[in-house]
Sequence to fold (517 residues):
Amino acid sequence: MEEREKVVEIRGLVKSFGDLDVLKGVDLDLFREENLVVLGKSGSGKSVLIKIMVGLLKQDAGTLKVLGQEVSKMNKKELNALRLKIGFSFQNSALYDSMTVRENMEFPLVRNEKNLTRKDINKRIEELLDSVGLPQTINQMPSELSGGQKKRIGIARTLILNPEIMLYDEPTAGLDPITCGDINNLILEVRDRYKTSSIVITHDLTCAKQTGDRMAVLLDGQFDAVGTFEEVFPNAEDERIKTFYDYNFINS
Amino acid sequence: MAEESGDRKPLLSKKIDKFFTGLADAWNFVRRFFQEVFIPPYEFKEVIQQCYRIGVESLPLISLTGFIVGIVFTNQSRPSLSEFGAASWLPSLISIAVVRAMGPLVTALIAAGKVGSSIGAEIGSMKVTEQIDAMEVSATNPFKFLVVSRVLATTLMIPLLVMYTDFVALMGSFLSVNANEMVSMTTFFVQVFEAITFLDIISSVLKSVLFGFTIGIVGCYKGYNSSKGTEGVGRAANAAVVMAMFLIFIEELLVLQLVNAIRGM
Fold:
């Protein structure tokens, strides 16, 4: 059987904030062109995990390799080179609210690809806005956009540098079910069209089921279950995972 | 009782620890500014935008305040001078007061309130809403874009605003002098320029540069280090103003001592 290429490899990752141990020796792999969903309670360390991946936080122990490179050992220049290959979609979209959508989109582009002409930049922005279905928002300010539109623009902005890996932090948080469905479809579309490998952080099981090839459940600082949705959830024996599933699919 | 004293001891050391950590953080922030200001790429567009926001958008407030300061100070000084039959010295007195102290100080205090708080709140809210992290993960340098550009803009614009305030305050003073003592504009300004020295102008510019840098760096530092949440943004804006005003008074005092020492040579 052909071995799949690992784009992220995490071994024994430990992270604490003061006395609070958030990640207690986490192991995880992300394979090329797969969507891996990381599930867990609020405050379980899901976002911490992906922030370590892009060097926003540093682990206390363990190794985290992205595209074969150990993130914690990189200097600033190497880290920035790696960051160009990773798209990070923030929970609250993190659009720059003093800039229009166009300026938001071109902000990373003009600073990282200096040889592009104005025509190339405009073409790339328009293409991406088309692909997220929001070409009409190009001159709008973020304050004029809805939550779902902000998420889409945020994703488009991260795609502008052609990343190999996408990290989605709670992509459906605070959105209505219809918009959640749209965002879930967009996540799948991004993987298929741009051939990205993705980690989707969420506690929304509908989002997980729809977007994920594999699930990883983070409980008490460790991944307790990793596998497909069917392997992890419907017949889970772990009471905590069962509660998670029941609450999402039965209570709601 | 024993428990109480046991609680107090770490609390005191914690505060001292926090004070020195804060001081070291602030020092590193200033040092980072000087390291990054000379290294390309330069954010010229953002610097110009900030210069416009800080300079041009402050003009109405500065104009009104400077004008009122000129009139009020003239009207307040007149009775005392008149008592000694020295009302004709008003232009000299006002020019020295405005150029040496009031112009820079009034402009800096107004800018600390208007510009410092706006920088603190803007950067603070960007921090809280992860916009700074978003810049970082897109391989751009948020420090250069946000901090260097704003500090440069305040450092460049405050001296210009001070010169403008000096002019507007002197115009206000002239109106008052003209209405009461029937002094012509030429006579007024001849007296004004006779009273001020080159050292006055240099010290005024030097102070303004220092005040501008202080307003920018304190606003950026407080915003950049604001804690999570909207409360943190409010605190950052507030702390930016209070800290900048406090430092402005200290700097005023230090520059005054330095200039007096030079004058005494």
About this structure: Residues 140 and 213 of chain B are 24 Å apart (CA to CA). Confidence is low (pLDDT under 50) at residues 1-8 of chain B. The radius of gyration of chain B is 22 Å. DSSP finds nine helices and no strands in chain B.
